[in-house]
Design a protein that fits this description.
Strand content of chain B: 5-15%
Order of helices and strands of chain B: HHHEHEEHH
Low-confidence stretches of chain A: none
Strand order of the largest sheet of chain B: 1-3-2
Largest sheet of chain A: none
Number of strands of chain A: 0
Shape of chain A: elongated
Mean pLDDT of chain A: 83
Number of domains of chain B: 2
Strand content of chain A: under 5%
Number of strands of chain B: 3
Oligomer: heterodimer
Order of helices and strands of chain A: HHHH
Structural class of chain A: mainly alpha
Largest interface: A-B, 45 and 39 residues
Chain lengths: 114, 161
Amino acid sequence: MSSTVGLILLIVGITFDVIGAIGLVRLPDIYNRLQAATKCVTLGTCMILLAVLFYAGFNSIGIKALLCIWFILITSPTGAHAIARGAHKCGVKLWEGSVMDKYAEDSEGAEDKA
Amino acid sequence: MKRFVHFLLLLGIWILLTWSLNWQDLLVGVIVAFIVDLLFSDIFPIYAVKVFTPKRLFWLFIYVWVFLYYMVKANFDVAYRVLNIYMPIRPGIVKVRTRLKTDMSRTFLANSITLTPGTLSVDIVGDHIYVHWINIVSDDPAEETEIIVRRFENLIERVFE
């Protein structure tokens, strides 16, 4: 029973990981790519780790998988903020189809005042 | 006190990771936890302990389920945009306002925004969060704040403020 649930979770997780990878290739600029990368890969990887928990049960392997889920949930969005902010500060432009960029407007305004 | 709580937490994680109570493993764990504690106990948010009251834990429970619901929804949203031939995106960076005050609650808000449909927080300046939004539906800042922030702000306020 638990191995069936594990197998289903594994398949769904891998599917989300694949979609995230396709998004990484298809979307136009770094910010959109980060969106696909953080969301899909976080949930996909968490599901694969959950599958490991169902397969292994509550022993040393399962507990490690649970802890890894917790760490990924905290670190993955934080890493995405760091990359997005760093890219913007380095002057990486948004895709030309983008509608607005309040961040650039505001930081230019701050430079003018300074 | 703060150091001690931090140390115990690190040691607990170590024991969970090694999953053994052999004295050699424990000794290495104590040494490693002590070194990490010396280096990083300054940035450990000790006031997070106040979350452990029944009322806050109840709202934390609700928050986790709401968060999971939006996270799964976000994944189907990304899947729809990525697999669609025409790629229906209308991206841009918008500026939303938050009324949360503590670092802890702001961190949770920003992380929640990143893992929910179509949004990615880029930076916090003062009370404003800059959010990259993959499909902007309105040009009005108040409405944007309503859509992006409100679904978590009330819950997080009840848990962490």
